[in-house]
């Protein structure tokens, strides 16, 4: 398929690109230390985004993408050498290769508009990920998903059988070596044990217009209020 060729081309083009994700207590010298480290390895910073919750006693977050010759061969050495900087600044950090796509599982219920949008973005090459499977508590999405040669699993999930359903879901996630879960209007409550198993690796696409219209029927209430802006809310699940 054309989009699979696009994915392959993307991976080939990104072979020497790395990504650093860092969080640590905010303090002077963080960016200088990272930049100097990358410079010593002849790496060129391509993109950088940073944020501090509070410059005095807050948490600093930064995401850096960089180009580095022969990065695949150098990765382990870079990781080993970077550890001293991480220790100095008390960093939580991860160095990954951009061409190694995240293996993603999508969870969906009856309403399919979020799923269809994700699949469209994936097909057009705007969402570079490896969609490994789709899980649903309804059969409605099967034809759409399987037409793209993506495995589809129907697992009935209710309040009464939630433990059994999540056990099967976790088995599939382990079997497919999933890195990331996207809840595309999956209308079930996840248990704390499930979230803990994939802590900070679950993204929920929320159908409300938070914080303006909290709760049920957000579209109707937004329409009644004459709302002019349509948006989606993405939240990282940690509880």
Automatic annotation (TrEMBL):
The keyword Hydrolase applies. CDD domains: ACT_F4HF-DF. GO terms for molecular function: formyltetrahydrofolate deformylase activity. It is an enzyme of class 3 (hydrolase). GO terms for biological process: 'de novo' IMP biosynthetic process; one-carbon metabolic process. Its EC number is 3.5.1.10. Keywords: Hydrolase, One-carbon metabolism. Residues 19-106 form the ACT domain. Pfam families: ACT (PF01842), Formyl_trans_N (PF00551). Signal peptide: none annotated. PANTHER family: FORMYLTETRAHYDROFOLATE DEFORMYLASE, FORMYLTETRAHYDROFOLATE DEFORMYLASE 2, MITOCHONDRIAL. This is Formyltetrahydrofolate deformylase.
């Amino acid at each position: 398929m054309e989009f699979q060729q696009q994915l392959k081309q993307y991976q080939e083009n990104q072979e020497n690109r790395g990504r650093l994700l860092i969080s640590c207590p905010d303090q002077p010298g963080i960016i200088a230390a990272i930049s100097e480290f990358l410079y010593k390895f002849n790496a060129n910073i391509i993109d950088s985004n940073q944020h501090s919750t509070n410059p005095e006693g807050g948490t600093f977050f930064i995401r850096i993408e960089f180009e580095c010759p022969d990065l695949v061969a150098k990765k382990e050495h870079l990781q080993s050498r970077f550890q001293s900087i991480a220790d100095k600044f008390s960093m939580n950090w991860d160095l990954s290769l951009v061409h190694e796509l995240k293996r993603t599982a999508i969870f969906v219920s009856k309403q399919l508009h979020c799923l269809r949008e994700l699949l469209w973005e994936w097909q057009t090459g705007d969402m570079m990920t490896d969609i490994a499977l789709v899980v649903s508590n309804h059969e409605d999405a099967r034809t759409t998903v399987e037409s793209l040669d993506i495995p589809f699993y129907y697992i009935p999930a209710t309040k009464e059988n939630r433990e059994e359903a999540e056990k099967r879901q976790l088995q599939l996630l382990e079997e497919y070596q999933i890195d990331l879960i996207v809840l595309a209007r999956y209308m079930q409550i996840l248990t704390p044990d499930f979230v803990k198993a994939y802590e900070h690796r679950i993204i929920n696409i929320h159908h409300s217009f938070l914080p303006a219209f909290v709760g049920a029927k957000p579209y109707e209430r937004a329409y009644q209020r004459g709302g002019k802006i349509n948006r989606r809310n993405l939240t990282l699940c940690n509880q």
